[in-house]
Records
---
Amino acid sequence: MTWLSTKQGQFTYFAEEIGQKDWSGKTVLDFGGNIGNMLRDPNSTIDPALYWCLDIDRESLDVGKASWPEAHWVHYDRHCFFFNPTGVPNLPLPDLGRKFDVIVAYSVFPNTSRTDMLELVPQLERLLDNSGALAFTFIDPNYVPWPEKFDGDNFAWRLDREGNDLSTPESRGMIERARRADWCVLINGNDLYIETENIAPVPPEQQKTSHAFHTVAYMKSLFPHAVIKPPANGEMQHCCVIRKD
């Protein structure tokens, strides 16, 4: 199955979170970059020849390569619930043969396990060049992203998007449990796990969605050397920024 992302604005988001709009001349690794939406952002200042996209979906990479053949498109066959259930668990990052000035990961760790995040962030850090920056997003369940449009926090918004009736006791109970947790995972829209990865086995064909939530305080405890930035560009996601220096 192919997962083609049409999301716009990733470059604008990360430029604001990192604090630099001119990325010309910088080598960029887009981890989980799909079809290369960082390049599709009309505000992008990335030189396509200095852009690397690493993703688990081959078809998305092919689409990106057709648009920017001068960029670098690398398949990474790591296991991921729903997106790549037949992939290789714990597969290390491939050797890309270089370091990077900027590494970004948009909406990757909100869809992977806590264990994967803790394994992959140090690997990505090791790919940073001198004075490089790694920026990756996460979703705080308690943050209220769009109070003028939706009366609820990020977790309630996701429950609603997954088709749950927020007025039921079951939904209200999940919202309250998520509100008290440091981190949690919502599997297939209605199966909530609080601070555990002991998830009941799900056959690949029944793996629909996996949404991970981490509070700002918890992310600060996991990555004390990171700067946690609030959502930018009208997004719901916070950002961890780790600098090589």
---
Amino acid sequence: MQLTDIVGAMLAELRGGAAPQVELDDELERDLGIDSLARAELMLRVEQAFGVRLSEAAVLEARTVRDLAAALAGAAPRLAPALALQPLLAPEMAGEPRESATLLEVLDWHAARHPGRVHLTLLEGDDEADRLTYGELAARTRAVARGLRRRGLERGEAVAIMLPTGAAYFPIFLGVLAAGGVPAPMYPPFRWAQIEEHLRRQARILENCAATTLVSVAHAQPAARLLQAQVPTLRHVVAADDLSGEENISSPLRCAAGDTALLQYTSGSTGQPKGVVLTHANLLANIRAMGAAIGAAATDVFVSWLPLYHDMGLIGAWLGSLYYGNPLVLMPTPAFLARPARWLWAMHRYRATLSAGPNSAYEILAAKVPDDELRGLDLSSWRVAFNGAEPVRAATLERFARRFAPYGFDPRAAAPVYGLAECALGLTFPPLGREPLVDANDVVSCGRPLPGQEVRIVDEGGREALERAEGRIEFRGPSATAGYYRNPEATRALLREGWLDTGDLGYIAAGELYITGRVKDVIIRGGQHIHPYDLEEAVGALAGVRKGCVAVFGASDPATRAERVVVVAETRLAEREARERLRRRIAELALERLGVPADDVVLADARVVLKTSSGKIRRSACRELYERGVLGAGQRPVALQLARLAASGAAGGLRRLARRAGESVYGLYLWLLFALLAIGGVAVLCILPKPGWRERWTRFVALALISFSRLEILVRGTAPAQPAVFTANHASYVDSLILTAVLPGGAHFVAKREFAAVPVLGWLLARFGTRFVERFAARAALEGARELAAAARGGESLVVYPEGTFTREPGLRAFHMGAFVAAAQSGRPLVPVALRGTRSVLRAGSWLPRRAPVEVFIEAPLAPRGPGWADALALKDAARRAILARCGEPERAS
């Protein structure tokens, strides 16, 4: 029959082989491995093949292929969507809650100023189900808080929230905070018929957070109460609709910025779960930083289908909209999965400006939605399309932009972003209004650190890597978690001298972050993080499987670009039926333990699963062989392969050790060289009587130090012969050394006046001819600029760092005006100088120099048009443009 042929053809694509024989009574998940995403794909194919519009509920609840056939028999004729525009034109709103220190204060700020303003519009299918204003949300929040207090909730106790997207979710989350508790979102089961099995998988999270209350839907209560015997702290299992309290219950508790506002669990499938502790201050800092990066305003409209247990849906979509006062349109996640075009039509219908999704969602829309479902679609209002939570694929970005350009989508709206729960949500965003930046090998830039956040790349020894060198991504900033809840071991692994380890690999180029992979073996499926260890142990315990010889890993799907779950198990079973029974049992275990079916189950012969010399599974090596299609090839020489791999690993370790030792020796050599030259140089400097002699001697010492250090310095351009004002970006302590060597003799540096008061250093700088100026006091700064102008008019060349200082993170900071006023008033040319690479030689906070290529760009002189302030501003703007184009670093606001 045609339906089974369609199912078989899709399975052949998913598994990479011939179409299997599909029977009507095959179960979709257990027997065929078709999960919710695959159901959406299957529904699209069936609708196109038969020219019908299937009932989504019937497809989602179908257990077997026969159930799908019944849904097909009752399907309606296929019609293109025809949704009228319903712009959410909210009343004007003045300001934002900048002074609010907690989420509850944010809610109170809005409820007090515009209680009738619509905050949430909830969709069910293609229709509106509910709307919620700020005033209604505040009232319901207080009612939930009273209900929780009546049940004895104490300050600091965790409340697990296991609810689908709906109107009840939001007052419950905020009500927990108002009652003094801590919300711990958990993902609900896709099918409530499996609630007991699902809850058992979630028991570890409940145990870890010591939840005293579990909030769920009414019909899940009997099964949920089974957990009370397993989780001693769990006193109450309540339905969302039952959470309310009388007015005489004590008023909501007040919370502070440093109080925990959320436990965001990153995993619960294996081992000890990790609950990221996020305070109100963490969340608001991240929301404000993300909003500043995209210019968020109350006039925006956000459409989201992302689940509320996921940080992108909870923080990015809901809490961000709560803060900025922009309307939020929400649809349940299954509504998108059942009919992906619904997301786009919601954008069209409400003239939405913001939305977000993982890469796989954009790939589905670009490749799977039929043209007749898009007729009349208008996406011209979409100004920021966040792409995160999964690795971002350049091909997907290109396909999506090309597919939806005829429907008004602007390619500059695509915003590949990077973040993680440990940073609340967002860590790096690209500049607003720029098309995605794709580097070599199709690696996509995820942008620059958000305001207040810092990112660095470190090598295996924990040292900061050079530009474009791959390493572990670490970060710090006001959004960073203090650690994992009741998990000191994981917290210790997370933190390193104030920096947090993301567990991801990447590199930085021109201040932008590029993600190249993951350190751990986490599988990301639809934004969900899946760990392989629990399933490997369970499969290894099955009869017929060689214990300890199971590998579970994620592999890239060439068709969908999404990540597939692959299980490789060694077995000695030879009979075909026995192997098929084992395959089905492994598929069942994958669904039970991971919550998603395995995309491919490979039954392999002995010694196919690669291991380290200590017996640990080498998942990444297995993945590489699987993706190349050679897993299990050449089984006889496995021992030889392992020996070769071990030898290669040992050689790589020795090379890394030698490289680190060489870097340390080089750094110590430079300091010794500097000490020797400095001692001799200062001694001569003390006795040279004439300024010109001292200047030439200083330049000679700088050139000698650079020559003996073997630093690679490439100078592009030539300095003018006549006196000029040189302005350069400032990235490192070595900047002055290099400029002393490459700029004409007699050029005097300008330094902050604080240096003049430092014993010995102030005297030495004065002997070099350094001029000191005031940076902060306005009157003194003005007088300093006049002094510099007089010196320039007198024939003195000046070297100024208009940024005034430097920090460890890359970026061109704001310029002070002194150098430009001096050039304008003196009439001397201003020469922009761009330094590139010096930050890698000696970064702020580090005292061990490293060899790295340095480029010095001496730009064409800029002639001042006059002595006025406007003329100085014109010089500043022109110099900044020239330096920014050459320095290889992004622009910073401060």
